[in-house]
Task: inverse folding
């Protein structure tokens, strides 16, 4: 999903992240807390996300606030990741300048040596979030740009819904 956060100067920041689950409690994703994304979320919990399926002419947008996931949920997901992804979580100084690809590969090699005889544990700076939505928009592309748009928005304790002009 495309995830938009707000930088400290109020400017939007957009990137693709892997949505790792959804349900009544919201949408889940995981990240390095020291990354630009992690720093943005620590400063302002408001986010927007979008899913787009071009071949199906469909899009879903969501707006809400993030909450940290419980440590047990983060641990469970981290433990399901392949070994190289776990090593990468330790090796990458996410969002920091990188001299060249070899610097990253050397860092992975050093972490691999460090955890050679064990399963890499979850780094203390690696966590997960849940987007708690307060607004959804569903879009279905139609011929002549006469698209269908439907909004579901939390107003007080009730979800209201209505159609929008394309």
Result:
């Amino acid at each position: 999903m495309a995830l938009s956060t707000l930088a400290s100067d109020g400017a939007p920041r957009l990137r693709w992240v892997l949505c790792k689950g959804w349900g009544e409690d919201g949408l889940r994703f995981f990240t390095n807390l020291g990354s630009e994304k992690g720093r943005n979320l620590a400063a302002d919990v408001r986010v927007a996300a979008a899913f787009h399926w071009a071949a199906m002419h469909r899009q879903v947008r969501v707006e809400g606030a993030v909450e940290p996931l419980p440590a047990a949920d983060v641990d469970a997901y981290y433990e399901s990741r392949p070994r190289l992804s776990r090593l990468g979580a330790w090796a990458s100084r996410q969002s920091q300048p990188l001299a060249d690809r070899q610097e990253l590969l050397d860092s992975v090699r050093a972490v691999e040596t460090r955890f050679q005889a064990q399963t890499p544990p979850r780094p203390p700076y690696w966590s997960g979030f849940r987007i708690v939505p307060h607004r959804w928009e569903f879009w279905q592309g139609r011929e002549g740009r006469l698209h269908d748009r439907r909004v579901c928005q939390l107003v007080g304790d009730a979800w209201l819904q209505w159609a929008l002009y394309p």
Summary: Residues 28 and 93 are 22 Å apart (CA to CA). The helical segments are 36-43, 71-80, 83-91, 101-114. The chain has a mean pLDDT of 96. The longest strand covers residues 126-140.
